[in-house]
Amino acid sequence: MLNIARKTAKILLPKTTVYHIKRLIEENRFEQYVKTKLSANFRSVPCGPVPPKELIAKTAALDEQELEKQSNGDVYFETGYYSVLRLLQILEHFSINPRTIGSIFELGCGTARLLRHFRCIDGVRLVGSDVNPEMIEWCKANLPEIEFYHNELTPPLSFAQDNSFDFMLASSVFTHIPLDTQELWLAEMQRILRPGGIFICSVLGQNHASLLLGTEEMNKLREKGSYTLTSDDSQATYSTRVGGSAWDVFQTRAEVIRVFGSFFQIVDYIPGGQDFLVLRKPDPAVSVVMNSVPFPAEKI
Ligand SMILES: C[S@@+](CC[C@H](N)C(=O)[O-])C[C@H]1O[C@@H](n2cnc3c(N)ncnc32)[C@H](O)[C@@H]1O
User: Fold this and answer.
1) Would the pTM of this model clear 0.90, i.e. be above it?
2) Can the peptide bond before residue 98 be classed as cis, meaning omega within 30 degrees of 0?
3) How large is the average pLDDT for residues 58-68?
4) Distance, CA 215 to ligand 1 centroid (Å)?
């Protein structure tokens, strides 16, 4: 019944109204969740401004049509609330309450579409970095409560001390890091995460491979475990073609587990639009049994 009402509304209402309603739904789900989980540690914060379309083009668009949609302010916030709620639910699934998180780092934060929503955790230290200086300038000018830094294409992150973050994320970033520097970045992320800390990052899994690659490329991906499109390739994502990155990097699940698993304990590999990896830096001083029930795959 609800599905029929949803489909009818989609046909009858202007797109912008549908986007607005969807944003309100996600915002409400997010707020209810964080208010309950954080209780006295919840802080109400305005969501902040929508970035200019040129910056969204470089971070969020699979193709030209998607760009129109993604640069709508309501869609920008809807996807941000949805994704951060999902990250918090993943943490909860593995017994981590956001109240116990004192510091968060996001690699490749872009316009802080995600990082900004963690400001609801009272007293948390938030740090974001990006290789694109335009993103960082915009973030610094518009989200003053968060620390932002520009980083180079290869590590180190000179602003970050060893073992300094409780939780780290990289959403749609290792998907653009070329294979020859991926291990350097994993080693750097391992250096700055505290023992026992959690790192959640995404990779281009089966869903994106089947959307963007043809039969020949899929065969090469299966054969080698990885396949890279460059910004000159017509199949590359729109964001990559317009200079948001120089590469779209595809990896099989087995290859991801081999590479990422040599730096972190792999707690879960969650299939979805992009696949999400839940990684933990082992703490030799504390023995922890993580939940072995898998977090549900994302409905696409
Ligand atoms: C698809 S966007 C995702 C942005 C953001 N994480 C989000 O979910 O909205 C990828 C971002 O990663 C950044 N990026 C790519 N390679 C990077 C690297 N080696 N170090 C830091 N940022 C990088 C790009 O500049 C871009 O802002």
Assistant:
1) yes
2) no
3) 74
4) 28
